[in-house]
Amino acid sequence: MSQALETGYVAVDGGELYYEAVGSGLPLVFIHAGVADLRMWDAQVAHFSPNYRVIRYDTRGFGRSKTEAVSFSNRQDLLAVLDHCKVDQAVLIGNSRGGSIAIDSALSFPERVNGLVVLGSGLGGFGSEELPPELVEPIGKMQAAQEAKDWALLAELEARFWADGPNQPAGRADSAVYEAVRSMTYENLINQPIEAQAQPLEPPAVGRLAEIKVPMLILIGLLDESDCVDAAKYLAEHVVNAQYVAFPDVAHMVSLEKPQEFNRIMGEFIERSLL
């Protein structure tokens, strides 16, 4: 018997956030990467919704969410989704910037978060300002495409970088993974012309990891760009209750490249640490 899917919009200052919720039980809230939208979690919704309440949403400026040119907080936006869905506590699952949003939110309102799962995650305040030498060329090409407003080329370059991995041969990742990232990125570029300004967490998360007391699962593909790989190791070393899992043959989009393995590892983590 299929479960009823709840969809709608959450009103936030200067915008509205599209969300979907299905299932019942322990709430799991999925936060997408910056080269995606909530559709990147399709395999996880199908896998976890029979046993958990699965919530996902398009962050401001992505997917079907809408925004005005305002200053805003991704953390407050997430809190608005939790409140709208009447969720007191949730496990937050985030990829890339979604991981950074999850970590920042756990630091901002720890009473609402009972677990963290991050994949190829950003970490506020971590890393140097200078690009590693191996990233100068690919990042330069992406910046040139953006300045030229060549959105099709930019989406292709982003997908090659994040799906295949920096300096990996084109086509390393499965074509379906590449196409998913390319198409979601392209749609975001052409459908979200208004740029709102996200407010960073102050002080940043990198110096506050001792405040994280909930169980945390850290996943990283070792073909990801070096800042993400280093951030994952740093998180594992500085968060008390953390589990670290590395995939040697995966880049940035762990849950898209290895959905079954990711679902198994995350499911075991939840059962062991949170139930």
From TrEMBL:
Gene3D superfamilies given in the database record: alpha/beta hydrolase
Superkingdom of the organism of origin: Bacteria
UniProt KW Iron-sulfur keyword: no
Statement: the UniProt record of this protein carries the keyword Hydrolase: yes
A Pfam family assignment: Abhydrolase_6
Domain (AB hydrolase-1): residue spans on this chain: 28-264
Record key words, sorted: Hydrolase
Chain coiled-coil ranges: none
Protein name: 3-oxoadipate enol-lactonase 2
Species, as recorded: Herpetosiphon gulosus
